């Protein structure tokens, strides 16, 4: 076990949250979907992700307020986002909040690049269920892995959500089907695969870490 | 720009991005009601509307959009 402290993320954690987004988007591969889909250079992405966090929009995976972090000696070493779908910003789906943030922050040319990939990406779409707790963007610094930090962060999100007035009926997450370490962790926490999406478009392998995604869920 | 012209330009812009016009321009229409209006096309629709009306949305404004009625109202207020 680790001697880490657990807390809600704050603005000082943004550098680690940016690292979290990038590593989660990479999903153990060389492809960062968020960069490739929009034709953004990987070295430009950290500043753009940072800008999205600085907008302080609540209720999606680019919200500082969604993240819990583990810190050791005051330094963030693990993070994961969690929010109840549709409970922020007038009930707007988190995917539209995310889209608005990207559209507002990324260069205009990125939207034109996105349109060229629309067909390849269409079959990968997975919706999030309103009212369910969403877990997204999990990352543990490599030297702090295998200490139970990820599991503890997810448990804390669940604990907080089940104490909320609008208690969610389930917790769900999306994961690339080839990310076996993550899938093994989620299974050990009681998650089961309930949906999947897959794209057989030839271009998909160049855009995303994998061509198949799972929705895993656990009842609460 | 008149209300009816604004509504029509929104309709043609959205139709152009989605590649179909199978939706009614009702005030209570939401993205979830329209086939193909997902998180990806949403970005293109917002960007295309800015170009079509020569306006710039603020992030706070688009995060408050609940339905077609509030989109029309927002565009009208920006053109006023």
* Main beta-sheet strand count, sense and barrel state of chain B: none
Query: What spatial order of strands do you see in the largest sheet of chain A?
Result: 1-2-3-4-5-7-6
N-C termini distance of chain A: 25 Å
Number of helices of chain A: 9
Mean pLDDT of chain B: 93
> What's the oligomerization state?
heterodimer
Give the count of helical stretches of chain B.
4
Order of helices and strands of chain B: HHHH
Kindly describe this structure.
Chain A is α+β, with helices and mostly antiparallel strands and 220 residues long. Chain A is 36% helix and 23% strand. In chain A, strand 2 and strand 3 form a beta hairpin. In chain A, helix 1 crosses helix 3. Chain A is globular and about 45 Å long. The model of chain A has no long low-confidence stretch (mean pLDDT 94). Chains A and B meet through helix 4, helix 5 and helix 6 of A and helix 2 and helix 3 of B.
What is the strand and helix layout of this fold?
The complex is a heterodimer of chains A (220) and B (80).
Chain A: E1 5-8, H1 14-26, H2 33-36, H3 45-54, E2 67-72, E3 75-84, H4 94-105, H5 108-116, H6 118-122, E4 133-140, H7 149-162, E5 170-176, H8 180-188, E6 192-198, H9 204-207, E7 212-219
Parallel strand pairs in A: 4-5
Antiparallel strand pairs in A: 1-2, 2-3, 3-4, 5-7, 6-7
Helix pairs in contact in A: 1-3
Chain B: H1 3-18, H2 39-53, H3 59-63, H4 68-79
């Amino acid at each position: 076990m680790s001697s880490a402290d657990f807390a809600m993320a704050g603005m000082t954690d943004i550098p680690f949250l940016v690292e979290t987004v990038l590593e989660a988007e990479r999903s153990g591969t060389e492809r960062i979907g968020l960069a490739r889909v929009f034709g953004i250079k990987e070295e430009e992405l950290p500043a753009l992700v940072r800008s999205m966090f600085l907008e302080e929009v609540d209720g999606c995976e680019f919200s500082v307020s969604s993240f819990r972090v583990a810190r050791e000696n005051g330094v963030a070493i693990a993070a994961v986002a969690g929010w109840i779908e549709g409970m922020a910003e007038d009930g707007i789906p988190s995917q539209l909040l995310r889209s608005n943030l990207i559209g507002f922050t990324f260069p205009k040319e990125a939207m034109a690049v996105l349109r060229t990939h629309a067909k390849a990406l269409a079959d990968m779409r997975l919706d999030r269920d309103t009212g369910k707790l969403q877990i997204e963007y999990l990352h543990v610094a490599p030297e702090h892995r295998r200490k139970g930090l990820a599991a503890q962060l997810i448990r804390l999100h669940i604990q907080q959500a089940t104490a909320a007035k609008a208690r969610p009926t389930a917790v769900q997450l999306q994961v690339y089907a080839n990310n076996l370490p993550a899938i093994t962790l989620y299974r050990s926490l009681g998650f089961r695969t309930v949906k999947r999406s897959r794209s057989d478009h030839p271009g998909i392998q160049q855009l995303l870490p994998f061509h198949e995604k799972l929705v895993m869920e656990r009842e609460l | 720009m008149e209300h009816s012209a604004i509504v029509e330009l929104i309709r043609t812009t959205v139709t152009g991005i989605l590649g179909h016009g199978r939706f009614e321009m009702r005030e209570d229409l939401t993205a979830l009601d329209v086939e193909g209006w997902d998180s990806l096309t949403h970005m293109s629709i917002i960007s295309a509307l800015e170009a079509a009306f020569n306006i710039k949305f603020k992030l706070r404004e688009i995060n408050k959009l609940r339905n077609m009625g509030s989109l029309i109202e927002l565009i009208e207020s920006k053109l006023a």
